Amino acid sequence: AMAAATVFMQAWALESGHATWQTMTFTVLTLSQMGHVLAIRSEHRSLFAQGLRSNVPLVGAVAVTIALQMAAIYVHALNRLLRTSALSLSELALAFAVAAAVFALVEFEKYLVRHGFVCRDRSRSVTNRVGRATSAERNELGNSTARSMGWRRSARAAAGQRRDHGPRESR
Fold first, then answer.
1. How far, CA to CA in Å, does 26 sit from each of 21, 73, 155, 157?
2. Average of per-residue pLDDT across 131-143
3. Is residue 25 classed exposed, middle or buried when 0-12, 13-18 and 19+ CB atoms within 10 A define those classes?
4. Cβ-based neighbour number of residue 23 at 10 Å
5. pTM for this one?
6. pLDDT attached to residue 152
7. Neighbours of 74 (CB within 10 A)
8. Which residues sit opposite 167 in a β-bridge?
9. Residue 20: Cβ within 10 Å count
10. 96-125 mean pLDDT
């Protein structure tokens, strides 16, 4: 949806002859990502049900990102550095509206899932795969994740010992 919104904005702005098409496209990309991050905080619950205060640091990060985007558009020194152009109020409003469509689509999908109109494939969810895995599979998943992040397992964990230092029982 983000890619479609961004490409739509670019194509429309170019076709309409807007000299600020690059800035409009950049703005839609940035704002649609912010809408998406707010919408995907829960697989089922709407942002409106969760409330913005349920994750204040995330809302702060989104606000700072939007402020930085506005600075990139309207601060002359940043215009030159980033090769952006000041958008008119109508261009900015259009960029916000197109980006808001991404948020609306994710929220609409969650609505459809909640009300049984669409079934989401739960087996593709990472948390669900881990939840149904055997203990050996969860252990290996943990090992591969740790290796991919450059972490090392403790000697006790590698030896298969519990916190009480006793050997683990096989199932």
1. 9, 10, 48, 47
2. 55
3. buried
4. 24
5. 0.68
6. 53
7. 14
8. 161
9. 19
10. 86
Q: Measured between alpha carbons, how far is residue 56 from residues 39, 101, 126 in Å? A: 14, 23, 25
Average pLDDT over residues 148-164: 53
Integer angstrom CA distances of residue 163 from 136, 144, 157: 18, 21, 9
The string of pLDDT tens digits covering residues 32-67 is 999 999 999 888 899 999 998 999 999 999 999 999
Written as one letter, the residue type at 3 is A
Number of C-beta neighbours around residue 36 at 10 A:
17
The dihedral built from the CA positions of residue 131, 134, 139 and 142, taken in this order, carries a sign that is: negative
Say which residue, 123 or 95, is predicted with more confidence: 95
Distance (Å, rounded) from C-alpha 16 to C-alpha 51? 38
Distance CA 114, CA 108 (A): 10
Residue positions counted in the chain: 171
Write down the residue that tokens 């702005």 correspond to.
13
Return d(Cα 32, Cα 137) in angstroms, integer: 36
pLDDT: is 126 or 32 the higher one? 32
Question: Where do we find the tokens 């506005």?
Answer: 70
- Mean of pLDDT over the chain: 82
Element (H, E) at 6: helix 2-16
Which residue shows structure tokens 């459809």? 112
